[in-house]
Structure prediction request, 437 residues.
Amino acid sequence: MSVALREDWVASPGGPLHGDIHAPGDKSVSHRAIMLAAVADGTSRIEGFLEGEDTLATAAIFERLGVRIETPESRTRVVHGVGLDGLQAAQHQLDCGNAGTGMRLLAGLLAGQPFDSVLVGDASLTRRPMRRVLDPLVRMGASIASHDGFPPLRIAGGQALRGIAYSSEIASAQVKSAVLLAGLQAQGETEVREPHPTRDYTERMLRAFGWPIDFSPGVAKLSGGHRLRATQVSVPADFSAAAFFLVAATLVPGSDIVLRRVGMNPRRTGLLRVLRAMGAHIDIEGLGEEGGEAVADLHVRHAPLRGIDVPVDAVPDMIDEFPALFIAAACASGTTTVRGAAELRVKESDRIATMSAGLRALGVVVDETPDGATIHGGPLRGGSIASQGDHRVAMAFAIAGQVCEDVVRIGDVANVATSFPGFDRLARAAGFGLRDA
Ligand SMILES: O=C(O)C1=C[C@@H](OP(=O)(O)O)[C@@H](O)[C@H](O)C1
Ligand SMILES: C=C(OP(=O)(O)O)C(=O)O
Prediction:
């Protein structure tokens, strides 16, 4: 039996943050680039690929399905696509690790294949709800058995899928993407509507790989029966990784940093809007386009923050940034209220509960609600934090340590490598006080 790796950090004030920071490649884009390149015709090149455990797990799964993937240099992948009809049955279960994105998108992509597949994940992923993708996929004709709506997912191959018009009740790019990827192999038209627009990387990348698709914010429509053509993908730096430095430099007096070539897809940058409304000093410089995605340098200087009511319509645009926002809110004057964010309860951990408990351990007053929290800003004392193995919670409390009166001990940080390998090294180089316990 394998035992989860447990590592701890000790974070303490390191002084002002300075320098240029290159955050790793975008996780959402990296997952999708591997998936589409694998089932395209021809050889694709992916540059800026995130070498995190989540996206490495997705790449390893396609190798098990018979796709050759080369690594000519770090952060580059050359994928020898086999076409939508060229994947081969795997001999073993397919391990998605910690990645909700990997498992949910693969469920859609594998539902219409002629062979059976079994998708498994780690303890955290095994607790995450899958009915949100199983319901629409089964309506399309898929046959997928689960453990009462939770992983493992046993996909029976050889099902004839048909397109559906699906109105999702939750704003989830993973649900939308699973249905669209199943739609590639379905008879007729597949349409997905969402209650609030979510990140549109699947739609944009399908178009880049030559698949006809209509989409506008909140709705996407495609038909089965086309082919994907290999292409080049340039992956921008991940806004969600950059977010930890945006908050840290805002909070630590004297800080002045530049985050380079960060992906600025508007469905990802809600934290920027919210931090600016709280008083943050962040300039967008050199806004341009790389590989069809907006990118910019983000210049951040320290600024005092004041609490706000986070607009509910910003929530899907910053869904992964709440751990960092909770720290910003704890350091702001006044109170910050988050509503309409119940989805946070079904991430790698229950992020409302994990962040509230961690902040309380540092002396912050937090009133938790079913779909959010009210955070009362005030001084942070030191303390011990259980990250519950959640990468974003661990990184958020590393920021808290930079502005605490005493040290912050953060437990179980190994999963930081799922989305941000090398975070601790980069953070120390920028000036963080952060060491292994
Ligand atoms: O599609 C994606 O790449 C993602 C969508 C979001 O999840 P939901 O779709 O469940 O909101 C996000 O939390 C996750 O980190 C990545
Ligand atoms: C929720 C996240 O990812 P996933 O759903 O892919 O596990 C995340 O990275 O914060």
